[in-house]
Write a structure and sequence with these properties.
The structure is a single chain. It is built from one helix and two strands, in the order ββα. Strands 1-2 form a two-stranded antiparallel sheet. By secondary structure, the protein is an alpha+beta fold. The chain has one domain.
């Protein structure tokens, strides 16, 4: 019998690293099963607008919310 935790905690870290050649590089790290929503990595050498950045975040969190279950997720 597999034991289960009452809640699943999701740890998501966002890191912005400025680089001389590529501009700002945004990295998301997930330290649990939700890391599958972060791949494949996306990188653009062109500057992105705030709207594009927000759209990326919305897409990322919508992917997580598709499998959200309030009975097990904190």
């Amino acid at each position: 019998m597999k034991t289960t935790k009452p809640f699943e905690v999701i740890y998501i870290t966002g890191i912005v690293t400025p680089t001389a050649e590529d501009g700002d590089v945004l990295t998301f790290l997930a330290l649990d099963d939700y890391s599958k929503f972060l791949f494949p990595p996306q990188m653009k050498k062109t500057e992105s607008t705030d709207t594009e950045f927000i759209d990326l975040l919305v897409k990322f969190f919508n992917g997580i919310n598709e499998t959200y279950d309030r009975k097990i997720h904190a």
